[in-house]
Design brief:
two-stranded antiparallel ribbon; four-stranded mixed beta sheet
Length: 266
C-alpha cells in the first residue's frame, strides 16, 4: 500500500492578510530612513542588486498582491499551483524578476514607490475573495495561497535588508511563522518520508527523508534550528556546513544531514 499523502497545512486567510500588511509597514518605515549612501550599498548575494533594488523588490512583492486582486480572475478548471509546488516553481523567473526590480527602482524615489504600493494594496485587497483564482508569475494560484507566498518574500528580503544595512527591521510574528512553515513543508515535499524530524521552534516540526519510520519516543534522526537560520538555509543565504560550524543547527542521526536537500529555493 502506498504511503498516505500528507495533509496540506491550512493558513488563516485573515491573519495572513494582516501579516503581509504589517511586515510591509515595518519595512516601509525602515526604508524611509535610509540615506542615498545606504541605498547604494550592495545587497550581498543578490546578483548585483543594490539596497535600492532590494527595497524596490520589497515594494514589488506587495504590488504583486494588488495586481492579483485587481486583475482578471482565471476561470476554474485549469491547473492551479499549490503551496506545495510554489517553492520549486520560482527559480526560472529570476532574470525577469531582476529586470522588473531594476525598472521599478529607476522609476521613482523609494518613498514614492512604497507609498504607491501601500495605497494600492489598501484599496484593492479588502474587496478580493480568498478563493479568487489569479494569474501570477508561476501560473494560476488561489489568492489566499498567493498571499502566503508573500510572507516568504517579505521575510527573506527583510533579512537581506537587515544584513546589507545593519538595520534591525522587526519580523511580524505571523509573517515569520507562515514563512517558516511553508519552507519547512517544502522540505517534506522534496524529501518525503518520516525517518528524520526537523524542528524549527516555535513555528514548525516536519518529518521527512525516506527510511525507517519513527513512531514512539525520541526520533533517531533530529535536526533543530531557529527560524531565521532555517529560512537562510532554505533560500541559499547560508550553507549547511556554515550553520553547523556556527552551532546554529544541531543534527543527530545518520539521516540528519540535509546538505543534499538544500537550498529549496535559489
Amino acid at each position: 500500500m502506498p504511503p498516505a499523502k500528507k495533509r496540506m497545512r491550512k493558513y488563516d486567510p485573515e491573519k495572513i492578510r494582516a501579516a503581509v500588511l504589517a511586515q510591509f509597514a515595518a519595512v516601509r518605515e525602515a526604508v524611509a530612513g535610509l540615506t542615498e549612501a545606504q541605498l547604494a550599498l550592495p545587497a550581498t548575494g543578490l546578483d548585483g542588486w543594490t539596497v535600492r533594488d532590494l527595497a524596490a523588490h520589497l515594494a514589488m512583492v506587495v504590488e504583486s498582491v494588488t495586481r492579483a486582486a485587481e486583475g482578471p480572475e482565471v476561470a476554474p478548471g485549469g491547473p492551479v499551483v499549490g503551496l506545495d509546488e510554489w517553492p520549486f516553481a520560482t527559480a526560472e523567473y529570476a532574470d525577469s524578476i531582476s529586470e522588473d526590480v531594476r525598472a521599478l527602482a529607476a522609476s521613482a524615489p523609494v518613498e514614492e514607490v512604497f507609498a504607491r504600493a501601500a495605497d494600492r494594496v489598501a484599496a484593492a485587497l479588502p474587496e478580493a475573495a480568498d478563493e479568487r483564482l489569479v494569474p501570477v508569475r508561476v501560473g494560476t494560484m488561489r489568492l489566499a495561497d498567493f498571499l502566503v507566498t508573500r510572507t516568504v518574500e517579505l521575510v527573506v528580503h527583510t533579512d537581506d535588508l537587515n544584513r546589507a544595512t545593519g538595520l534591525a527591521v522587526p519580523y511580524d510574528r505571523q509573517t515569520l511563522a507562515a514563512c517558516t512553515r511553508l519552507l519547512a513543508d517544502g522540505l517534506a515535499v522534496k524529501a518525503p518520508g518520516a525517518s528524520t524530524e526537523v524542528r524549527i521552534p516555535p513555528y514548525a516540526v516536519v518529518q521527512c527523508v525516506a527510511g525507517p519510520r519513527h513512531t514512539r519516543g525520541t526520533p533517531p534522526n533530529v535536526v533543530e534550528t531557529d527560524p531565521l537560520t532555517w529560512i537562510r538555509l532554505a533560500t541559499g543565504r547560508t550553507t549547511w556546513a556554515a550553520a553547523l560550524e556556527s552551532a546554529n543547527v544541531s543534527a543527530s542521526g545518520e539521516r540528519a544531514d540535509l546538505s543534499g536537500l538544500l537550498p529549496l529555493m535559489s
